[in-house]
Amino acid sequence: MSGIKISNSASIDQQTWDAVEAVLKSHAFTISDAFRLMLMHTAINKESPFDCIIPGPKTIAVKIMH
After folding, report:
1. What is the pTM of this model?
2. Which residues contact 20 (CB under 8 A, 6 or more apart)?
3. What distance in Å separates the CA atoms of residue 30 and residue 37, rounded to the nearest whole number?
4. pLDDT for res 2
5. 59 CB contacts (<8 Å, ≥6 apart)?
6. What are the sequence ranges of the domains in the chain?
7. Which residues of the chain have pLDDT under 50?
């Protein structure tokens, strides 16, 4: 694997960033490590590392009513 560095950005509020950073730090990971692991998992397994639930029309209709 080459040492090419690619940069990207994500928008997230400071409170969430700090909470995620604290959890990952307790496991000796950085946020960058977590992103790298997620991307590697996706590339190797050709699937998302977590369930992506897409709401159906009935769920969307109920949310719109509230």
Report:
1. 0.66
2. 12, 31, 34
3. 11
4. 67
5. none
6. 14-65
7. none
